[in-house]
Amino acid sequence: MTRDGDAIAVSPERGEIIGREIEGIYRMERVRLTAGLARYVGDLSLAEELAQEALVSALATWPTSGIPPNPGGWLMTTAKRRAVDLWRRRRMMARHEASLSHDIETGRRDEHAAIEAALDDEIGDERLSLIFTACHPLLSRDQRTALTLKVIGGLTTEEIARAFLTPETTVAQRIVRAKKILREGDVTFEVPVGEARDARLASVLEVIYLIFNEGYAASRGEDLMRTQLCDEAMRLGRILVGLAPGEPEAHGLLSLMELQASRFKARLAPDGSAQTLETQNRRLWDRLLIQRGLEGLATVKRLGGEDGIYALQAALAAVHARAARFAETDWALSAALYDRLLDRVPSPVVALNRAVAHAMAFGPSTGLALLAEIEAEPQLAVYSPFYAAKGDFLFRLGRMEDAGQAFGRAAGLSGNETERAFLRERVLACRARPLEAENPPL
């Protein structure tokens, strides 16, 4: 970087590096920025636009001026100034203009710190505050879940569609409609209290759960996992437990996430290939997260919430956490837990996972019979894990040609490159042993 008079010339290489740094900062600050802006302007779509404009300003300014000490505060200040400019030009929302102008003018001595402090609320976390707001009763369940996954989780409409096994156009329409309802309903962007907050808790738990799931098994891209999403979901889960310490499902969800996250380091081999539960090096499992997850389950039991949907899933994760070796897994208990979960959540995905547990407990023929019961479900026709499970059952029965076809179908439906590579390897394994039946002890 060289100086020419009062201007700083930035080399293309350096500019590219700074640009990536700025985009990384924006990804970290995006949700907090959007949440804070939404509270001031009362319009989620406008808040997102202002946040984007602040990013554009940063990309134009920071390469020459340098990244400020408090980049989040800089972005917020810039976005709020833009909001004031818009309101002045449109001659509307005068009370907001006065409030925002006051915030900016009185904070000039240390405006970024002042803006940061002004964002604090009773929960103390802007992301969680925005989730509660977006889970407003005016919205349908599908609308609020899709909206919060998009705004909070940063998921694309394609990723949300995969999570719900729903067409992408349907998800996009839900998001647009949800924003319109919030805008026309003049919804105040604030944290509900008391019964109003409790009424939205189930929706908030569901959103956090789905954010974690997308991080645990990324629906697209080269990486098998997006651990930053999982970390964010667990952080929000811990805040929720503090907010509602007597709610067993909050503890159940946090327990589930911690038990699942304990396996992160073992899910990929050194060469980057995916590892199944059977092939994972369990010495790499995080014992501290397992301990915390099991303690969370004990809290759920003390609160009498063992039949909650997240508590049951946490109990399923605990079956694996307690097994020192794959061969020691209590698959009969896992199958029984899935029976209970399917009664609570009668969905094709839960039925699929139940079939896997029953196959491991009672043999692959049992698994195939259970898959046959749900194969006609439209959602499963484009669901890669269904064909992966079918391929595995067929493989264990020695039906290599049929197994290879199922694995190939699963690979074609997967949007994740690491997962596709794993499934293609299984296709090759089927071709290598077309006549050899493999039915290892379970």
Automatic annotation (TrEMBL):
Location of the RNA polymerase sigma-70 region domain: 26-91
A GO BP annotation: DNA-templated transcription initiation
Cited Pfam families: DUF6596, Sigma70_r2, Sigma70_r4_2
GO MF term (any one): sigma factor activity
Domain DUF6596: 200-298
Domain spans labelled RNA polymerase sigma factor 70 region 4 type: 132-181
InterPro entries according to UniProt: DUF6596 (IPR046531), RNA_pol_sigma-70_dom (IPR014284), RNA_pol_sigma70_r2 (IPR007627), RNA_pol_sigma70_r4_t2 (IPR013249), RNA_pol_sigma_r2 (IPR013325), RNA_pol_sigma_r3/r4-like (IPR013324), WH-like_DNA-bd_sf (IPR036388)
Record NCBIfam families: sigma70-ECF
PANTHER family: BLL0085 PROTEIN, BLL6612 PROTEIN-RELATED
Official protein name in the record: RNA polymerase sigma factor
Originating species: Rhizobium glycinendophyticum
